[in-house]
Specification:
Blueprint: E1 4-8, H1 31-47, E2 53-57, H2 65-68, E3 90-96, H3 101-113, E4 121-127, H4 132-141, E5 148-153, H5 156-159, H6 182-185, E6 191-195, E7 199-201, H7 205-209, E8 218-222, H8 224-231, H9 235-243, E9 254-262, H10 263-269, H11 272-279, H12 287-295, E10 300-302, E11 309-310, H13 317-321, H14 326-337, E12 341-343, H15 359-366, H16 372-385, H17 391-395, H18 401-414
Parallel strand pairs: 3-4, 3-6, 4-5, 8-10, 11-12
Antiparallel strand pairs: 1-2, 6-9, 7-12, 8-9
Length: 415
């Protein structure tokens, strides 16, 4: 009879899928052997004695425990880190706050609809302030899926040690910097997927995970909009990229909302502490995206654009993309025909405007998610809010030439 070992993690803010996720690892055990263990799991879950309980056959998994489960990761996180939920899993990491919880729910719904029954998926959500309602809604999405684990990890205590800078003209939140923490939070993984939560996924992420990184630090798709701005004569951006990022005219610039990360090479480039220190040094124009492009220049693998098709935000992005070199603009147009992943990057989100680019795809998944009611409310509030704009919105509407002019003044001052 195979022996079973229990593993415990002390991660205060983690939530896992039901005990049924472990059934595949116990199929060849006698009922009399594992029945008591299920009872123990139920008791532990009920009384919150354990944050994570997993068991695996020693002869198949724990024989490699020293390398798969290090006693302490090498970085700034010492006790609060996560071990793989399955022996052979596809780790998928998201970062979110409560504001983006409904979007995350739709993204997760879309991902789950394309998951293979033959694969195991270890979903980790790095979050700062998700409400219990949102966590329960997300947990319900994976209920009954034996091959999917869902966990939450709150790294605010770690990141609060740093004065992270954010370009105030951008729409992103500080949670975007959580991706720098992944090597220490998931130290037992060699490769991890990171996906922005304002995306929908139209294919199995297992195909993305199988990307051969060819010795590169990470894989990402080209940022076609930036290519258009550079090629279209945005002298301020070109100057910034040369002087601050050290990027010449022919150096590719990548959109980092979708990443296939080699965690070992990420750590070789910089420790987590060093990454966060860099992010605290100055206000980068495109925040963490600039940092990753700068620090990993020459060590980035180009992904097919189908894995990160950014929407034509407000009808203003596509004209810029068409100014990019022909091979980039045409690759973007072709990817739009059959996108494996749609990225709602920019100020205009589908829950703000249901007629926006690719919004119909978002709402199709939304109807089957546990956040549909909340999204309908957000859409209603967005429509009502159009009649109650702030003074700044009246004077400088999003996407307007006046707003772009003021933004350029600010960026010139920052540079």
């Amino acid at each position: 009879m195979a022996s079973i070992t229990f593993l415990e993690l002390n991660c205060k803010n983690s939530l896992f899928a039901p005990a049924s996720v472990f059934v595949p690892f116990l199929q060849d055990l006698e009922t009399s052997a594992y029945s008591p263990f299920f009872s123990m799991i139920r008791r532990a879950w009920k009384h919150n004695n354990l944050d994570f309980v997993g068991f695996f056959k020693e002869d198949e998994y724990l024989s490699s425990a020293p390398s798969r489960f290090p006693s302490q990761p090498s970085g700034i996180i010492h006790e609060s880190y996560l071990s793989p939920a399955f022996p052979k899993a596809i780790p998928v990491v998201f970062a979110s706050n409560e504001r983006f919880a409904p979007s995350l729910g739709v993204c997760l719904q879309s991902m789950l609809e394309h998951c293979s029954n033959d694969r195991f998926y270890d979903v980790v959500i790095l979050e700062s302030n998700l409400l219990e309602d949102s966590k329960q809604r997300l947990a319900r999405l994976v209920k009954g899926m034996a091959n999917v684990s869902l966990r939450f990890f709150n790294p605010t205590e770690i990141i609060s040690q740093y004065s992270l800078k954010k370009n105030p003209t951008d729409h992103i939140s500080l949670e975007t910097y959580y991706r720098f923490l992944i090597p220490d939070i998931l130290p037992s993984y060699g490769k991890v997927l990171y996906l922005d939560c304002d995306t929908v996924i139209n294919d199995d992420v297992a195909f993305l995970f199988e990307t051969d990184l060819q010795g590169k630090t990470f894989a990402a798709a080209l940022d076609a909009e930036i290519a258009g701005l550079r090629h279209g004569g945005d002298s301020l951006l070109v100057s910034y990229m040369q002087s601050v990022l050290g990027m010449g005219a022919d150096d590719p610039y990548f959109q980092v909302g979708v990443l296939v990360l080699d965690l070992e090479r990420m750590k070789r480039t910089h420790s987590v502490k060093q990454w966060l220190t860099i992010a605290s040094e100055r206000k980068y124009r495109f925040n963490d995206q600039d940092i990753l492009n700068k620090e990993c220049k020459g060590n980035i693998l180009q992904l097919d654009t189908v894995w990160n098709v950014v929407v034509d935000c407000g009808g203003r992005r596509l004209p810029l993309i068409m100014k990019a070199p022909a091979e980039i603009s045409q690759a973007y147009l072709q990817a739009r025909e059959h996108p494996a992943l749609i990225h709602y990057a920019g100020f205009l989100k589908p829950w703000n405007d249901s007629s926006s680019d690719f919004a119909y795809v978002f709402w199709d998944y939304a109807k089957r998610s546990t956040f549909y009611d909340r999204l309908l409310l957000l859409e209603k509030q967005a429509q009502e809010g159009k009649d109650h704009k702030s003074l700044s919105e009246y004077l400088f509407p999003r996407g307007s030439k006046r707003r772009q002019f003021m933004k350029k003044i600010y960026l010139r001052m920052m540079q």
